[in-house]
């Protein structure tokens, strides 16, 4: 079991939006997302996957800070779907946030839904993805948020920039994998490959000709917008012979720091600068799984892309390979994550809550439930489950946002414990199995502290960083450890918090926050055409 302490200030801040209470009343940019089955060939075989507009990964959205856009989503696939705009705070507009049965019922095959995406303070890289079952394995894409028009990056302008999306691939249908896992109660089959921009790379069968290549000019500096869309794994990432400089995470700028590798959780984004300053040649870009717990079955393969210099030169027969940390190197993982700091300059100030009005202590755990005649695929015939404070989330019959907004009784409870109901050694060696990358919808939060072992309420707060903590929307709670975050609950609505390892979310490691209306800050009314339940 992992200890996670969340400190929340419930002060509500007034927000002003154009066209209050009316959707689609301005000539905002409009995009069309058609969710449809498309055949794709990977690892020597072809299968149909769900895509947006036939693309895998899906289309990249380009916006400026503070923009609003409209996305018309048409479901021409064979199962229910929703689309989530990961890390977009959507001020007062939870209706377009996207998690199924939380803020909307899913878009059924043949149906459609028009979503209004309201950007506010985000600047950098985010992404969008399906938020129903495990379809985000193939239904996802990047969101690039440029500074306000006329403003510049807080670092020298790069020569060029590239989204780099890390992912996973299963030979079997992802919908079938989800159904099998839910039915048998065990761990899902591990993936057959990791991906870089949709391609497995040279080390997998039938993959070398399509390996993603990043072409660069000697002496130029480039910006990589790194996204981990993997369904089940935290990943290490590195470029052979090239250091990267971290300049942002989760659409917030960071103090620059140099590193030989990156640790990136599912759902997280990292912005990286690198300079093509090595001998012109070709070099491997690589990513592989980080697994914090012992005895866990995982995909131990490595995905690659190629960094290739332009020009005339004699290249080596085999590209140089980067030195990635070992799969169980927790020290390397937490060292990278612990190095993140907010930029905290005059143009990008921090606003860390100091006066805390509500303190929450949450424990995250993997559990087991009994099965009739020990017939499930979990340990000793049990069914695997996951929980927060020993409570597993169960999807309601209608979405929680509509139930809250229209005062529908009997859909959700409001007695979730703010503190674990039973105290014991939360980080005993026989309990934790994984890091848990936790993602909060509707907000970004300051990661003010983390550590290994049990949280000490007397000593650990003395180590909090209240000066320049990183501002994120996804953070990995380390195996055998704890993380403390702070944020202001200034965005009224129903918002989801969950583990971004999809098997854990499906097992119940989820919760919802209901932020009530305050003076000058009220939930916008629902848009027309909400999908039916």
From TrEMBL:
A molecular function (GO) term: copper ion binding
Entry-linked Pfam families: Cu-oxidase, Cu-oxidase_2, Cu-oxidase_3
Name of this protein: Laccase
Enzyme class: oxidoreductase
UniProt keyword list: Apoplast, Copper, Glycoprotein, Lignin degradation, Metal-binding, Oxidoreductase, Repeat, Secreted, Signal
NCBIfam families, A to Z: laccase (TIGR03389)
Family in the record: Belongs to the multicopper oxidase family.
The keyword Repeat is assigned to this record: yes
Gene3D superfamilies: Cupredoxins - blue copper proteins
Reported cofactor(s): Cu cation
The record's free-text note on cofactor binding: Binds 4 Cu cations per monomer.
Organism (species): Prunus yedoensis var. nudiflora
Plastocyanin-like domain segment(s): 35-149, 161-312, 432-518
Source taxon at top rank: Eukaryota
Primary localization class, coarse: secreted
Gene Ontology cellular-component terms listed: apoplast
Reaction it catalyzes: 4 hydroquinone + O2 = 4 benzosemiquinone + 2 H2O
Task of the protein: Lignin degradation and detoxification of lignin-derived products.
GO BP, one annotated term: lignin catabolic process
Classification via PANTHER family: LACCASE-15, MULTI-COPPER OXIDASE
EC numbers on record: 1.10.3.2
Signal peptide positions (record): 1-27
